[in-house]
Write a structure and sequence with these properties.
single chain; TIM Barrel; eight-stranded parallel beta sheet; 8 strands; 9% strand
C-alpha cells in the first residue's frame, strides 16, 4: 500500500469485540458465568454481564463509571461519544474483520497487529482456570477474525498470569495453532507477584523459545494493583487516571525487565511496551542506569549490563502519532526501538488521520521508515 512512499505496520491496532464472542467461543462448562452483552447500537464498548445481569466491571469505561463522582453510562464514555461520528462506517458492520481492513485502507496501513479492547481477564479475584478460559475464548475468536486476510491481520494472544502453567500452555497453543505474533499482558502485579518474579520464568522461557514477542499493554482493572487507584473518587479522576495509568505502569514494567534481571536470564526475548507514550523513556533509562551504577553493589539479582543496554538490545516502545517529543527520544536513544500505534478504534485514536499526523512531525526519513515498518517487523517477525 505504501502511504507517502512508506510501508506501515501498526504495532497496536484494536478491535471491538462482538456481544456474543464468549457465548460462541468459551467452554460451555461455565454456563451462566459466560459473559454476554447486547448487540452494539452505537460506537463504544459493550457492557458484558453474567446471565443474571450482574456486570463485569473490567473495561476502562465501566471501571471509571463505577467510581467516578460524576456518573455516566458505563458503556460509552464522553470521549467515545465525541468521536462517534468518525466511526459510523465500521459501526454498520459491528467492527467485523471486513470493516477492520477497510479502516486500514483508509489509514494507509499495510499490516496491523490486533489487540483487545475488553480486559475481562484482568481481575485478581478470578480463579485461574476461569481467567485462562476467558483468554482462550478471545484468542480463538481473534484467530478466526484474522482469517479474513492473514497477510494483513496479525493476531495477538491474551495471556493471564493467574497460573503460570496455564499461561505457558495457552502461549504454546496461541502461537503454534492460532498464529499469534505477540502475547498481550498487563504490566501490573498479579495477586501480589510482580512480572520480574522468577515464578514467571517458564512463561518468558517459552516465549523466547517460540520467538514470539511479549507485549505489555495496560488496561483499566479495578481489581488489580494499579498506582492510579489512589485517584479513585477524586473529582477529576477521569483526567488523572487516564493521564498517568499507562505511562507509569509501563515505566515500572521497563524497570522490572531491564533492572529486575529478566532480560539477563532471557537474552533473546523481544519485549514491547505499548500505548503509554515514549517521551518518558530517555529519563527512565537514565535514572535506572544512574541508580545501577551507584547501588549495584547492594543488589542480589545478577546483571552483566546496565539497564539501558538491555532495553536497546531487546525492547520496543510505541509512540503516539501526535507525540512530537519523539524527536528528543530519537536524539537520546536512537530510532531502532520505537514503533507506531494508531489505537483504532478508541476514543483517543486519530483515525483516519493518525498516520498523516505522524508524518507531520519532523524527523529524518530514515527514522520515519524504521518507526513505520522496520522496527515493528523485527518485533513481531513480520516479513
Amino acid at each position: 500500500m505504501a502511504k507517502n512512499g512508506f510501508k506501515i505496520v501498526d504495532s497496536d491496532m484494536h478491535v471491538f469485540e462482538p456481544h456474543d464472542l464468549y457465548l460462541k467461543y468459551m467452554d460451555p462448562k461455565w454456563g451462566d458465568r459466560i459473559p454476554r452483552g447486547e448487540p452494539r447500537k452505537k460506537h463504544g464498548q459493550i457492557k458484558f454481564t453474567f446471565a443474571d445481569g450482574r456486570p463485569l466491571r473490567s473495561s476502562g469505561t465501566q471501571a471509571l463509571a463505577a467510581t467516578s463522582p460524576k456518573p455516566f453510562n458505563g458503556e460509552t464514555s464522553p470521549g467515545e461519544t465525541q468521536v462517534a461520528h468518525r466511526y459510523e462506517k465500521p459501526l454498520q458492520r459491528d467492527y467485523d474483520a471486513v470493516s477492520q481492513l477497510e479502516a486500514m485502507d483508509d489509514e494507509g496501513l499495510d499490516v496491523a497487529v490486533l489487540f483487545r479492547t475488553f480486559p475481562l481477564h484482568c481481575d485478581d479475584s478470578l480463579e485461574a482456570e476461569y481467567a485462562n478460559d476467558l483468554c482462550r475464548a478471545w484468542n480463538s475468536w481473534m484467530a478466526d477474525f484474522c482469517k479474513e486476510n492473514p497477510v494483513r491481520l496479525k493476531p495477538s494472544a491474551l495471556i493471564t498470569l493467574h497460573d503460570v502453567d496455564l499461561a505457558v500452555d495457552e502461549t504454546r497453543r496461541a502461537v503454534q495453532e492460532l498464529g499469534a505474533v505477540g502475547l498481550s499482558l498487563v504490566p501490573e502485579p498479579s495477586n501480589g507477584r510482580h512480572i520480574h518474579d522468577r515464578c514467571y520464568d517458564p512463561l518468558w522461557r517459552e516465549a523466547e523459545k517460540l520467538g514470539v514477542a511479549v507485549c505489555f499493554h495496560p488496561a483499566a482493572s479495578p481489581n488489580q494493583d494499579q498506582v492510579v487507584h489512589r485517584f479513585k473518587g477524586h473529582a477529576n479522576e477521569a483526567v488523572l487516571v487516564n493521564a498517568f495509568r499507562n505511562p507509569i505502569e509501563l515505566m515500572l514494567a521497563v524497570g522490572s525487565f531491564c533492572a529486575g534481571g529478566v532480560l539477563e536470564r532471557f537474552p533473546k526475548l523481544r519485549v514491547a511496551f505499548l500505548e503509554g507514550n515514549c517521551s518518558w523513556l530517555p529519563w527512565a533509562l537514565y535514572r535506572l542506569d544512574e541508580r545501577w551504577d551507584m547501588r549495584k553493589g547492594y543488589c542480589n539479582e545478577p546483571m552483566s549490563q546496565r539497564p539501558s543496554d538491555y532495553f536497546l538490545r531487546q525492547c520496543f516502545i510505541s509512540v503516539d502519532v501526535e507525540e512530537d517529543l519523539v524527536g528528543d527520544v530519537i536524539r537520546r536513544i536512537g530510532d531502532d526501538n520505537v514503533v507506531i500505534s494508531t489505537d483504532y478504534p478508541h476514543a483517543d485514536s486519530h483515525w483516519p488521520d493518525a498516520v498523516s499526523d505522524f508524518m507531520a512531525m519532523e524527523m529524518p526519513s530514515s527514522s520515519r521508515k524504521k518507526i513505520l515498518w522496520d522496527n515493528c517487523a523485527r518485533l513481531y517477525g513480520v516479513a
